[in-house]
Write a structure and sequence with these properties.
Radius of gyration: 22 Å
Shape: elongated
Strand order of the largest sheet: 5-2-1-6-7-9-10
Largest sheet: 7 strands, mixed
Length: 311
């Protein structure tokens, strides 16, 4: 037995789930992804999303509507006559006509332990808040923002120095396995739905560029969580004076260190920086247009002596 599925997703995070459903023997009737965006070195080429590219390699028809306001788009979706729609990081709001346009509705793979971190940036916000665990949840979608009942949960521990990029890569495979398992249960009529509790709701707002600069006046744990929560994208950053001019540098990894001093002061020659309370060691950095470098390699090109003030 297999399900007739419409898959809806856009970034690389969604691709393992699409492949897992294909490998499980389900019939993927169509894939929906966001429209191609300008890309390439000059931004002149239209680039298909990772899901779009994966679907074409698998021989699955792909649709890329800007939205579902057009009645013809809604009818095309409904005409697929699908059992279920699987949604993973699609990036578009789904109207009622789509949510109810299949036999079993729409099931979403969401990267948090709902109701904590509903919304656009659950991986980053979990790390920035210092959470020690997160997970993937398969949820039946309703008209609210990640408010639907939960069908399946897979928890993941968060290491002390785990970055958003590392957690992203782990969760996308955990999520693929969870969704494949959920679809087996759905096919067998054994997928229970549990309403989300009303307590513990937090919203994971999209990361704003205005919050990416490192504030060393904060506690060391907050600074460390801020850095790892934004690594590798968009990247937390600071400024150093090189050649008499301030230069922006991204910090892509750090760790808690020993020491104290004025906030932003370099305490050692290997980039231990004082925070409002405690200190952090910066362990991976990147100049604009440059490669990511471990501390020792970065300092060979940009010497920074203890006592230097970072801002």
């Amino acid at each position: 037995m297999s399900l007739r599925i419409i898959f809806m997703g856009t970034p690389e995070f969604s691709v393992p789930t699409l492949r897992a459903l294909v490998d499980a023997g389900h019939t993927i009737l169509a894939v929906y992804s966001q429209p191609p965006r300008p890309g390439g070195r000059r931004g002149l080429d239209l680039q298909k999303s990772p899901v779009h590219q994966a679907a074409e390699l698998l021989g699955i028809p792909v649709f890329t509507p800007v939205n579902f306001k057009d009645p013809e788009e809604r009818e095309r979706f409904r005409a697929c006559d699908a059992d279920v729609a699987v949604v993973v990081a699609y990036g578009l709001l789904l109207p009622e006509a789509i949510l109810t346009g299949t036999r079993y509705g729409c099931y979403n793979g969401h990267a948090s332990l709902l109701p904590r971190w509903r919304g656009a940036a659950p991986i980053q916000r979990a790390l920035m808040a210092g959470d020690q665990k997160t997970g993937m949840m398969v949820m039946k979608m309703d008209k609210g923002l990640d408010t639907g009942p939960v069908a399946l949960t897979s928890e993941v521990e968060i290491g002390a120095n785990t970055t958003a990029g590392e957690l992203h890569d782990k969760l996308m495979h955990v999520g693929a396995k969870a969704m494949a398992e959920a679809m087996v249960k759905l096919e067998m009529g054994d997928l229970p739905l549990t309403p989300q509790p009303s307590d513990g709701v937090l919203y994971a707002a999209k990361i704003d560029k205005g919050e990416t600069r490192i504030d060393f006046s904060k506690d060391a744990a907050e600074v460390h969580n801020h850095i790892r929560g934004l690594a590798p994208f968009p990247g937390a950053w600071l400024e150093v004076a090189t050649g008499g001019k301030p230069e922006r540098v991204k910090v892509l990894a750090s760790e808690i260190a020993q020491g104290s001093g004025s906030a932003g002061e370099l305490l050692t020659d290997d980039l231990v920086v004082a925070c409002g309370t405690g200190a952090v060691r910066l362990t991976r950095l990147q100049k604009a247009g440059g490669k990511q470098l471990p501390t020792a390699d970065f300092l060979r090109g940009t010497p920074l002596a203890s006592g230097t003030r970072l801002s």
